[in-house]
Automatic annotation (TrEMBL):
Keywords: Magnesium, Metal-binding, Thiamine biosynthesis, Transferase. 4-amino-2-methyl-5-(diphosphooxymethyl)pyrimidine binds at residues 40-44, 72, 111, 140. InterPro entries: Aldolase_TIM, ThiamineP_synth_sf, ThiamineP_synth_TenI, TMP_synthase. This is Thiamine-phosphate synthase. Its EC number is 2.5.1.3. It comes from Eubacterium uniforme. Condenses 4-methyl-5-(beta-hydroxyethyl)thiazole monophosphate (THZ-P) and 2-methyl-4-amino-5-hydroxymethyl pyrimidine pyrophosphate (HMP-PP) to form thiamine monophosphate (TMP). GO terms for biological process: thiamine biosynthetic process; thiamine diphosphate biosynthetic process. Mg(2+) binds at residues 73, 92. It catalyses: 2-[(2R,5Z)-2-carboxy-4-methylthiazol-5(2H)-ylidene]ethyl phosphate + 4-amino-2-methyl-5-(diphosphooxymethyl)pyrimidine + 2 H(+) = thiamine phosphate + CO2 + diphosphate; 2-(2-carboxy-4-methylthiazol-5-yl)ethyl phosphate + 4-amino-2-methyl-5-(diphosphooxymethyl)pyrimidine + 2 H(+) = thiamine phosphate + CO2 + diphosphate; 4-methyl-5-(2-phosphooxyethyl)-thiazole + 4-amino-2-methyl-5-(diphosphooxymethyl)pyrimidine + H(+) = thiamine phosphate + diphosphate. It comes from the Bacteria. Residues 10-190 form the Thiamine phosphate synthase/TenI domain. Its cofactor is Mg(2+).
Length: 213
């Protein structure tokens, strides 16, 4: 396995729509100071050149905090910046093809919404799964909801870490107790905050207590 289970505890996913005049690097640094354990850059609306430059800058910050950097969807960008890995959706590049490009040491995460998808991803060599949406969110309002019971079944069906995703916040994660997850993936719960560092510290502590309970 190319990823440590403890790295999955608090999975931050960037979204520039909440920057409010700040740079992405500034808000990422605040979130890492607060304890984000793995970071994914997700960019849907900037061109390849700017994405590449941004990823290079964020990688330097992640290295200072010893936090793995994951690139969403874009295997080529992940390779060019020597990111720690890539996260792929069900409609993105096949795991085996991504592995050929990135090599055996890189982290490959997969979105899995069913037991079948989870088992297939593990069989093909995925390092972790992202499963949801537990709640609807501002980033993916049309995402199909995943019940906590289905999440538990996914966790029980595989040996690799599973992170829950989808509208998760400090106030609503209690439903995930005893689900078998290794952590939570969040966007707005961190990056929409006016005090990113403080809210990240609180969210990480609550998540750890939830999973360790």
């Amino acid at each position: 396995m190319n990823v440590k289970k403890e790295d999955m505890l608090l999975y931050g996913i960037t979204d520039r729509s909440w920057l409010n005049g700040r740079t992405l690097s500034e808000v990422v640094k605040e979130s890492l100071e607060g304890g984000v354990t793995i970071l994914q850059i997700r960019e849907k609306d900037i061109d390849e050149k700017n994405f590449l430059e941004e990823a290079k800058e964020i990688k330097k910050i992640c290295e200072k905090f010893n936090v793995p950097l994951i690139i969403n969807d874009n295997v080529e960008i992940a390779k060019m910046v020597d990111a720690d890995g890539v996260h792929l959706g069900q409609d993105d590049m096949d795991i085996e093809e991504a592995r050929k490009i990135l090599g055996p040491e890189k982290i490959i995460g997969i979105t899995a919404k069913t037991i079948e998808q989870a088992k297939e991803a593990q069989m093909k060599g995925a390092d972790y799964l992202g499963s949801g949406a537990i709640y609807t969110s501002g980033t993916k309002q049309n995402a199909k909801r995943l019940t906590v019971e289905d999440l538990k079944a996914i966790c029980a069906s595989v040996e690799i870490p599973v992170v829950a995703i989808g509208g998760l916040t400090y106030d609503n994660i209690d439903v995930l107790k005893d689900s078998g997850i290794s952590g939570i993936a969040v966007v707005s719960a961190i990056y929409a905050s006016t005090d990113i560092k403080t809210d990240t510290i609180k969210l990480k502590e609550k998540t750890r207590n939830l999973i360790d309970a």
